[in-house]
What we know:
- This protein is α+β, with helices and mostly antiparallel strands and 143 residues long.
- Helices cover 20% and strands 41% of the residues.
- The chain has one domain (4-134): 2,3-Dihydroxybiphenyl 1,2-Dioxygenase, domain 1 (Roll).
- The chain is built from three helices and eight strands.
- A hairpin with a 6-residue loop joins strand 2 and strand 3 (43-50).
Amino acid sequence: xxxxxxxxxxxxxxxxxxxxxxxxxxxxxxxxxxxxxxxxxxxxxxxxxxxxxxxxxxxxxxxxxxxxxxxxxxxxxxxxxxxxxxxxxxxxxxxxxxxxxxxxxxxxxxxxxxxxxxxxxxxxxxxxxxxxxxxxxxxxxxx
Length: 143
């Protein structure tokens, strides 16, 4: 199985201030911004890009049910997850199963941009939240 870093998710308290920092201090470009009110997501997301590398800034839209709100309460702002692109998410999930790595099944979804994703169980990843994702309708396979 081949992996490529897709993006890093950062939990933030103030999305506007965070966008401003990334644009004015780091020279990032805001390439996408959207809200997801899907159950288990409840976040506003700003995708920033620096030299082809992406960071997702994640801000909760519901302070009682958003996993980002829970993360901020428990750990504070900062790195929330690391996402790895795989050529075929179904194949990657079979590989994980054979290796005894669990996923958080309820997180399996397709976002509004066609990215299929799932989170691995942090109990099996040394506590790091890891996302696996693919883009089944796009041509960006790992070479």
